[in-house]
TrEMBL record:
Protein name as catalogued: AAA ATPase
Alphabetical list of CDD domains matching this protein: ABC_ATPase
InterPro entries: AAA+_ATPase (IPR003593), P-loop_NTPase (IPR027417), TPR-like_helical_dom_sf (IPR011990), TPR_rpt (IPR019734)
Pfam families for this protein: TPR_12
Origin: domain of life: Bacteria
Record lineage: Bacteria, Thermotogati, Deinococcota, Deinococci, Deinococcales
Amino acid sequence: MLAQACGYVTVRVPGHDVSARREGGAWAHATWNGEPQSAPPEALLERLRPGDRLAVILDTPERFDPHTRALLGPLLARADATITGSATPAAAPTPGPRTVILAPLSAQGARSLAEARAGRALATPVHTWLAARAAHLPGPLITWTDALLLEAHLRRLDPDDLPTEPDPAWEAAVAQHVTLAARALPHLPYLYGRAHELRAARDVLHRQPILTFTGPSGRGKTRLALQLAGEARPDFPGGVHVVSLAGVPSTDVALVRIAEALLGTPPPSADAASVARLLARRPTLLVLDAPEGHLLSAPLLEHLHHLSPSMRLIVTASTALGARGEALLPVPPLLPAAVRAALHDQTRDEPAPDEADLARLVDLIGGEPFTLELAVPLVVTLGARGAAQHLERVPPADRAPVTSLWRQLGTHEQRVLTALATFDGPFHPQWAERVAQASTFLLSALIHHRHLHAVGGGLYRYPGALHTFARAQLHHQPAWRARVQGRVLREVQATLRAAPTGTPAWFAALDAAYPTVRSALGGLLAHPPAAPTLSEALVDLTTYRVARGHLYDAREDLRRALRAEPPDAPRLQLALATVLQHLGDHEAAQATATALRDAAERAGNPALTAHALIVEGRVLHRRSRYPESRARFEQALGLARALRDVPLAVRALDGVARSALYFGALDAARQAAARTVRHAERLGAPLLLADALNTAALVATDERDLPRARELFTRALALHAAYDGVTGLTLNRTGLAWVMLLSGDHRGSAALSRLVLRQAQDTGSAWEVANALVNFGHATARAGQLDVARRAHLEAARLAQRCDAPSVLAEALGGVADVLARLGQRGAARTVFGVARVHPGANAEFRQFFAPLRVELRGVPPETPDADVQALCAEVRGARRGRAQASTT
């Protein structure tokens, strides 16, 4: 802008770490007076008229590819001024009268840029915080400003209030937004040709929400998609996220993998709505590599785009997905000129080949990128003629890229890669050494030759096609497969036994090894060994997975194990029922637990019967069927006492206390909760004690013994903090926020509810998000922020309706009625409260909390609320009628 304002004709060339990985990549993004161009530099020079002054602007020239550096020579020789902001002396032009090296922005300039980005004035503490991170550099300043604004939005805070936020984790959360948006792509080999395809793909990406690259295996679809995504990253503040879906078994797991990429951590659950919420935070580019056709249905993709319209999607697949808004770009073979350029550059230190031999080799490669990749080392070793002769000797049936690669490997390399096919995802090299009995040197060689790819965090994985081929080899060698599986199982067991189960050290060991453990179990379950140790490992790991929220991993692995009909199926079924209950899949959890209980009763297995009853009780409790829930817990308690199984009895007694509390039997709840705490303290089981303390705190809250409730919630929080248990922390912070609300500390309750809501938005279930929104709505309503409260309650009600959470739905409706009454719309409040009061989720706490509102609205004639609220009430009534009809049927 400065150069054009001074009357210069400008050529701007932006450097980028990804564009540097292809032929002419930086020049492909050059602009002439701000307009994209595709002409070579010589053609641009011909456009200059006599008297025109030329300014060449070089952005981060240290990231230019070699071809662009060569192209710039004539332009730099003609330039009247060269402008750069490079901080790398070797990359910047030689300083002189025609060279301008821009300094960082002034303090006032940085302030103006940040406020322009925010669309509003920002307080001095915000500018101070931004300056400490961006050092007044425009690019980083924009990135950090966007991240700060996003975090303020997620916390329901004004950006000016963020630096004074009592939760110190807000700074780490802002940094996480920056890190995820700038996450590096996998290492990219240099790309030759494809300029036309990339130019066409960029145009499509600006116009269409979904771009699908199609073509046969080995054609370079993934490489092209990654190049496009990396070069487009500056247009997407939410970053570029690459998700490999090869081998993913179901849509649920695919959504979890996508959410994991967006968050940087595995979420406990993910559906289309929650993934869309993450995508909608900022314009985001998502690359989905090699999904199976059944994973991503056209309606699902259309739904994601409808909920997050700024999202763009790049897919690599063999065929079209069939979604509205999808554009197809078939990937053709490379042009002969690109193949020649690649062979020349990769073998430039070798003697020049005979032209006839080179032409013959180019013809044999046929424009296939994978074949080209195989041919380069052959040319280095054998020369162009020898490489051509080698390729000609390969039978046509074996000229498939992976087959050709496999034939070039030695016997020991093939054996190692076959063993590593046991993993169905990323793995740690130390595990690879022990499982495949491979030396560090051999693994390093496989990595160097890109037979194994780094994926970050010290982990490696197979390229997709090679992994499929190696797994087929493993399938045809049952004896070798059995030995390898035995080693994998020993590694998994050693990790599970690294510390006493359930201790902080046990959780820490599994936190470090979990990605490899997940890959190991997934690979084992492709051909389950007939060994009870696999079932034992899956059951033991369920405790960790539930605590850490890896619920979909647990569900899929347990279901796959059960399909093999193992002899210890009941233990796996119990673990599956527990996982389904935590996922909120109440119908499936109850059906699984009930079937298991019936089978256990017939088999005369009281311990298994008691465990199944506890799962049933928890599901019924979550569905607000408190009398039935209490009956199941009491049955389980009787069996546990007969078995003298104290931990089992404590779990059952805790369930009795909770069900009695929500049913309104406060005396029984108080007695059961007190006994549960005493027994849990004697057992010395911290997490069991934390659950008991939470129940006792809920009882104290219901009795309005608020100091006692605060003390109990605080003790439970301390226990969960020692284990870094996110679910337990969320549960007890929610309870503590409720206590603060009842105590009249509305500001403190709103602040803590914001913290819970912030955590739940990333890693929580829909139920946790809805519950946090209800608490936040109550607190802000009492602080006079009625519009904020109304929006929170409506959002909570819709979420609770979708995730089958009756008590949360009833309370959210009550919250809407409360806000309407405070706004003076008492007739509309009476209508909404009538819907809430007769809802099955209107439990004892609901009746106690909303008793004053019920008195206030008594005798008020009902009136029709506004359209949003009326639609919600109609939806709730319709859902109730539907459930009643289904129950009758």
